Sequence to fold (393 residues):
Amino acid sequence: MFNFSYYTPTQVVFGRDAEGHTGALVKAQGCKKVLIHYGGGSVVRSGLLGRIKASLDKEGVTYIELGGVVPNPRLSLVYQGIELCKKEGVDFILAVGGGSVIDSSKAIAYGLAEDADVWELYDRARQAKACLPVGVVLTIAAAGSEMSDSSVITKDEGGIKRGYSSDLCRPRFAIMNPELTATLPPYQTASGCADIMMHTMERYFTPNGTMDLTDSLAEGLMRTVMDNAVILRDDPANYEARAEIMWAGSLSHNGLTGCGSDGGDWATHGLEHEMGGMFDVTHGAGLAAVWGSWARYVYRDCLDRFVKFAVNVMGVENTGAPEDVALKGIEAMEDFYRSIQMPTCFSELGIAPTQEQLSTMAHMFHIACGGKKGTAKVLQEADFLKIYEMANH
Ligand code: NZQ
Ligand code: ZN
Fold:
């Protein structure tokens, strides 16, 4: 077990009608003016935005709005948001949406706190010293950004998708009403479940540092997500299942399932970020499409953990050679993805990269990660390319 620091400053307000507390929670922050930031219109159509504004009005909170965040949120809108907030004297960002809206909000908050180009953070040119406060009303269980220290932004020119992590951007509060996720298209619900699984798997598949309690929490979380993802496939309005998934989404990425480990592997996320940057795929679906290839490429180097995963998470019988048990676990995971209509290769994801594009993605990842990535197996550019090639069918 490694030493660790577990920091979760986010106040969670969870359950039916939770968004009714928005005005009071924002007011308690003592801010002067709020930016309500949202996406492509789902919160307008559902009536959520109107309810949020009514809640702010009731508490006498002044606000302005900026919508238009797209999945794989763009740097250009972040710059626009920073300029708007400077002009309007905004000192608190309220994200109403999913991971993309929250990440765009965090980027605007970083950009407002320091007089320097915010992309330098994502480009690894400097570290943030400050960030304006951010609050969240969550509408999709997926990225876990509502409690995480991360923000992932795509630079428009060249489709460069990069993450930046710092405790400074962890949201002050996260309002989570599972009912709000009932309007999601099934593909987004399933992609969210794939992403939630991955945030715990990234931390689980590492040979360095284990802690029984953390492993048990992680295994329970993964089983819960798989059980409830299948329930939602058949019964999208099921509140209890939506609630299980929503809370799992936050716990999967707030650090809890990594306590005592070395931080985790994270190669699959790095591989997906290049796919998202180049092909604008949905993040969770992209992860599902490449995970099996990554797992088959690395499992021998992290065999004990793959066997443990197969037995404790996927219910594989622990008989025969460990390699066989591990492989059965990988196959069972891919079967799960298929069962919720998630892809397990690039053609199922709907992309057909050329060999040159695969090489470009491998090289971009090489640059993004500084040469090597992964703890289950340490991977370099040639390995990234091989994994992309394995997934490219
Ligand atoms: O834009 P609108 O119209 O709201 O539509 C969104 C969007 O099209 C829609 N949606 C969201 N809530 C809805 C809804 N539609 C109907 N009803 C609702 N209640 O769903 C689509 C996807 O939304 P998005 O915010 O992109 O989803 P997600 O939460 O999966 O976020 C993905 C982004 O987060 C990043 C990903 O890379 C990707 O850019 N990540 C962020 C992380 C973090 N900050 O900690 C960690 C993750 O690993 C991930 O990388
Ligand atoms: Zn993710």
Notes: Residues 148 and 254 are 5 Å apart (CA to CA).
